[in-house]
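Subject: Predicted fold for Acyl-CoA dehydrogenase, 387 residues

User T.R. writes:
Posting the sequence so we have a shared reference for the thread.
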Amino acid sequence: MMTDATTIAARVERFVRDTVAPYERDPRCGAHGPSDDLVAELRGLARDAGVLTPHILADGTHLHHRDVAVVLRAAGLSPLGPVAVNVAAPDEGNMYLLGQRASAEQKARFLDPMVKGEARSAFFMTEPAADGGAGSDPSMMQTSATRDGNHWVVNGRKAFITGAEGAQVGIVMAKADEGATMFLVDLPDPAIRIERVLDTIDSSMPGGHAVVAIENLRIPADQMLGNPGEGFQLAQVRLAPARLTHCMRWLGACIRANEIATDYACRRHAFGKPLVDHEGVGFMLAENLIDLKQAELMIDWCAAVLDDGHLGTAESSMAKVAVSEALMRIADRCVQVMGGTGVTGDTIVEQVFREVRAFRIYDGPTEVHKWSLAKKVKRDWKHAKES
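User M.O. replies:
I've generated the structure tokens; pasting them so everyone works from the same file.
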């Protein structure tokens, strides 16, 4: 690990614990995430503290993923931390994709405002199940892209689009004759209409999760990301690391939840002794330590593979399953240790439980990743038999 990354992570941790955490009860934290006003205020404080977009250095280079892991874990110590320091989803994944594949002109127009924390973004891929559209199976995509001279015209509907309300940059995936294709668009645009923002179990991401109608959206050809038909390839450039960075952020949140539950168990007395001295409680906290360390090691292993340029869907699927399931166990135990207090808003433990429960679904439910891994098992077996 680079010393610089260790220093950056320490500064981010101090900022999140000392400056961001007191905002967790701010009334601007709503059911659909923190308001844009609160986001701007927090990012202003992060900018002043020198910790805004800390995973992208002043020269534009991106930290190695093993270094990103410690920085994002520190940011995740508060549900507001990733938003405040500009490493939250979907912006962090979108910045990574544009940094890897956008043209110089596209970076100047779309990426630079995101890196500066001046613009939020949205990734328009998932579609409503009622329309028979793409969810975990992107090959079911219904949204169409048709050439019209030097423009493309996009029509369709999207669902669970995180941060669409209030975003300034959009990445839209649609199906052209050549296959799935990605486009960059300025937001808001009258051709992209938010039908509703869904009421979901999680509440940490600005703008919430929207259902969106796209009606005759005209996009200049130079706003295509990559080439026609490269959409699925580009999606993997974004999604494999993004699954891992989700793990990093929520590991930080669960570390904090476990700190709160541990403090409660050591202070609270029942039946003549502290709760932690009761085997049923103490063992849950011990199991949390085991799951936290296993999640940390899985993230570090997967980040090392990514840094070596060998991260595939199998590795990211394994990390997503192992870490999301471990963090769910940790969050659940924290609630249980704290009893009635654990299901109130008096601490962030209740919110962390909700957020991690949602994490088991987004960026691919556990079962989809297991199914993908099972297919790999069969392929590897057949290859071994044939060789």
